[in-house]
Structures are given as structure tokens and as C-alpha cells.
Amino acid sequence: AQEVDLGEAIRAAFQRSAVREGKYFLPIDALEKIVTKKRIRQELVSLSPESLPEQLDSLTAQIWEVPSLSKTSSKKTTRRKLFAILALMQKLDQIVEFIKEGLYDSDLPFILSTGSRKGLRQLDRKGEDGESESIQLFAKWKIIELECFNNCQWELLAPYFHLSTKRDPKILHYNLENETIMPFIEDDEIKHAGGYGDVWKVKIHPAHHNHCEDSASPTENPCYAVKKLRHHNDDAFNIEVSNLKRFSAKDHLHLIKLLVTYSWREHYYLLFPCADGNLKDFWNEFPCPSTPKRDYQLTLWFVKQCLGIAEGLKMIHTLDMPDTEDLDPTAARQTHGRHGDLKPENILWFREYQDKDPSCQGVLKISDFGLTRFHGTISYSRINAETVAVTGTYRAPEYDIKKMISQSYDIWTLGCVFLEFVTWYLLGWEEVDKFSKSRMEEHVSEIKEDVFFNFVNMVDDRGQTHTGALAKTSVANEFQSLYQRANCSDFMMDFLEFIQKRLLRMGPTNRAECNEIVETLTTLEKRCSTDRQYCMRKLKKPPDRSDTEVSLLRP
Question: In which region does residue 30 sit, left (phi positive, over 0), alpha (psi from -120 to 50) or beta (all else)?
């Protein structure tokens, strides 16, 4: 049977990119399968049947594989893509001209520009100094052929993404040309707006990335989450990436891992493992307090996740000197951080995470480091609140009252999240929602706001009035209501009391530091693991209601 025309074979292997304009690209594995050494030689024989075998062998070798061009690099380059482009254009006889002019696949993409006058076109190669260098052979080509070459070259230049893995944690950045055709075979257009960008789900063609070791099943081609920063803002991008790079080498289970970054069409993009949702989605997915069953296994999972989140936050607050060469020297010296935007929406939920235990509900990971900041010493960690954007509901009172933010700001937000998590555990999603509404109803301002404190006018010694903050009664009531629940075990009571007395304190200096939170949760987790009765049964008497004076933050 007659072999299919090479150009036709290449077109048959094209994949449609799932990105909006739906252009076609040739996957890398298809190129390797179709443009083989044997096929190249066959095409050369068809072009020049009278050529001697040794001439054909030499020409085939120059297309198939070419030794490295520089002595310092062992990387080899080829002319297989050039050969494929010419096959698509039915101009295979021109390959000899490309060889004569010393052009290789590594010179692609050639740059299409206006020629010496309007209406003309020329294709140049980018020299080592970044300047355009003219390509002589194209002088004989028609404009329509130059434009055709330009279109065809992009179909063969869909990028390969080398993702960060445990073995090779380095995070690479790709600067992609505007014309690049993305090798995405799925691209979820339903974008979820985040603080500084939009996030959605993609699937990359399996030949265009090294499979991420963090995926739930290494045999499957996993989905990834793409975060697009809203503006081409170098500072916002550098801050978020610098924050994420600090944790990449540590590979902490409860901190989201950045896999790769790229810039394309005047936007920055970050690629992450794809979560099944966030903590709020998790609560919504299991709204009923009987599902999943509140048994010993679920309680152990619950305390382990709370401990993991606290450990993740501790890593942000007290990071060792980074051992990654990716950070600039100034960033490397800044080791005291704060997250700045901890909330259920920024705690991602991975349903299946390297755990086949059916009782396991997955893993929770802290994400969204767009507001995270690092400083050289703890004393520098108090910053002006007026220069920082924060999330409404979970913000700490000192943001409004003292216009200052420090690491203890995160402790307040962690306390809010933990209190809602306990509420979900004991009473389900409906109670979490009800608790939110009761906080809003209690708000004293004209515009009702769902925060955990109220504003109060306070008169100082000189008779001047200032705004202070008072913990909302609805929050104190929630604690009391949870303590009284029949399913509020001794462990849950101890955890709630710790949240109330050491996290949700109005005065920032009265809040626990991350070390204390991790130590306390480690103790609770160990006791739950060894004492089932403590974990599941209620034997203790609930604590008394606290004094209202400690619920006040003075200006």
C-alpha cells in the first residue's frame, strides 16, 4: 500500500488546542512517531532518486540529529521540525537550502515582520544578541509562502512544561510568544475569581509536561489549576512567586505547591496541582452533620488537618533561611512572614491525596500567597494596614482600630476558620451559614457586615472619643452553644476553649504564636490517637463564660 503523504500524516495527528481560539498543534510524541529517520530517508529518495546512498545517509543525518553547536553544551538539536513544516507546505526540496544556511529547529520561531516597505513580509531569525538576522533563502520565496511558513511553525512549537517535582523542585519560568499555541486539551472557561487573579482548570497534553508527582494517580494525566494574574504586574507576580518558591523545597503537605510559571499575551500565569474545591466547598458538599459519619476516624482526620494547617502557617511565620537559589539575596534574608488572607476559600481541598483509606476525606492546603509578605526581623512585621488589601469577614480588629497588621493578624483569621470548622463538624453547613447571618445581624454600622467584632465609641482620659472594637455577642454565644452540644467531646471542648482563649483574642499581643498552636494541636492529636474516649465522649463540664473586658480592643 502506498504510504500517506507526509504533510497529510502530520495534519492527521494535529490536536485542537482547548484555548479559546481553538488552533491546532502537533504534539511532540506525534512528531517523533511520524518524522522518523526512516521516513526522512524515504522522502529524500523520492526527491532525488539518482542520489548515491552515502549522500542520502549524510543528508538524513543532518536532518535527523545534529551534534551540539557549542562546545559548552551537550544538548543536541535537529531539523525535524523544519522538515515537518516544509512537508506541510509541500516544499520538502527546500530542506537543502536550510542546511546550507545553517538553520536548525533551535532557531525557531522565525520572526515575521514588514519588509523594506509596507505590504512586504520577511522572516528573520533571532540572533544570540537578540537582534534580527536576515535569512537569505527566503528572498526567493513569495509573500504567501512566508506567511504560510509562519503559520505552520507555530503548529509545531506548542511548549513543553517541565513541572517542579519532589526529585527536581526547581520552578521554571517560560516567556511565551503571543502566537504560541497552548498544548491544553481541556481548558475550563468557568473562572473562579481570586483576590488578585482568576483560577481555572486545565489539562495539558501528556506529551507536553513531565507528570506531576503530586497527582492523585501517576498513571492518569492529571488536571492542573492555572492562576492568571489580572494585570501584567511584575511586582505582584514576583511577590507571589517568591513566596511560593520559599516553600517548594520544603514540600510541606499543607502548603500548595507551585509547579511552573509562564508569561503569555501580557499576563502572568502560575500552575498548581488542581484541587477539588476549597474548605467552604467541602462544607457545602457535606452539609448534613451525619455525613460523613462523625466517628473516630473522621475526628482523627479533623484534628490532623487542623494541625497541618497550623504547621503550614508556622512555616510561613518562622521560615528558616531559604536553601533555594531561585530567590534574590534580599528576599533570602527576609525570613519572617505572614499570610495576610487566611480564609476557608484560601484553604484548598484535595479529595484523594495519595491515600486509599476510604475514611480519609483528603488533604487541606493553604493557598493564595498574593498578600503574603516576608520581613527581615519580627520587629518589621508590623505594617501599615492602609497599604494592604484584606478579606472582610475574617479580618482582625486591629486592622480597623490601630491600622496595623502583624503576624498575630493571621492568628485571629486562623481562629475564625477553626471556629467555623468546629461548627461544621458538630452541626453541619446550615449552622455555619446561620452563624454568619447572626454576626451580620448584630453589626452596629448602617452597612451590615459579617465580621467577628463590632465597633464601639470609647472616651479617653482627656474626654476625646475614639473608635474601639468589641467582640460580638453572637461569637461568644456560638462558643457556648457548641460547648453545650451532646456531641462536643472532651477533645472538641479543649480545642474550642483554646480557640476562644488563645486565638480569638481582641488584643493582638494576647494571641498565641504559631509555636504554641502547633504544640497544643500536636498534644491534642496525640491524645486523640491514644485515647478514644477523650476523642469521642463528653465527660467534662463546659467552661464558664469569659469576662467581657477581655473582649475589648482599645484604640
Answer: alpha
Q: How many angstroms separate the Cα of 340 from the Cα of each of 394, 406, 450? A: 10, 9, 18
Q: Classify strands 552-553 and 336-338 as parallel, antiparallel or unpaired.
A: unpaired
Cell numbers linked to 280 = 467552604
d(CA 419, CA 175): 43
Q: What is the pLDDT of residues 359-390, one digit of tens each?
A: 579 999 998 765 545 444 443 344 454 445 55
Helix (H), strand (E) at residue 492: helix 490-498
Q: What pTM was computed for the model?
A: 0.85
Closest to 539 in 3D by CA, of 503, 489, 476: 489
The answer to whether residues 241 and 352 touch, using CB atoms and an 8 Å cutoff, is no
Name the E strands within 361-427. 363-366, 373-375, 383-384, 404-405
Helix (H, G, I), strand (E, B) or coil at 75: coil
Can you name the residues that pair with 552 across neighbouring β-strands?
Answer: 470
Closest CA to 420 of 351, 373, 459, 475: 475
Could you tell me which of 490, 496, 458, 494 has the C-alpha nearest to residue 478? Answer: 496
Is the four-CA dihedral 527, 528, 532, 534 of positive or negative sign? Answer: positive
Query: What residue has cell string 480519609?
Result: 360
pLDDT value at residue 231:
67
Please state whether the peptide bond connecting residue 358 to the residue before it is cis, i.e. omega within 30 degrees of 0. Answer: no
Q: Around Cβ 377, how many Cβ atoms within 10 Å?
A: 10
Phi and psi of 108, rounded to 5°?
-70, 150
Q: For 425-464, give the secondary structure using H, E and C.
A: HHHCHHHHHHHHHHHHHCCCCCCCCCCCEEEEEEECCCCC
- Quote the CA–CA distance of 165 and 215 in Å, as a whole number: 10
Q: Rounded CA gap, 246 and 215, in Å?
A: 21
Amino acid at site 192: H
Q: Can you tell me the mean pLDDT for 149-166?
A: 96
At residue 412's C-alpha, the angle toward residues 410 and 417, to 5°, is 90
How many whole angstroms separate alpha carbon 223 and alpha carbon 503?
36
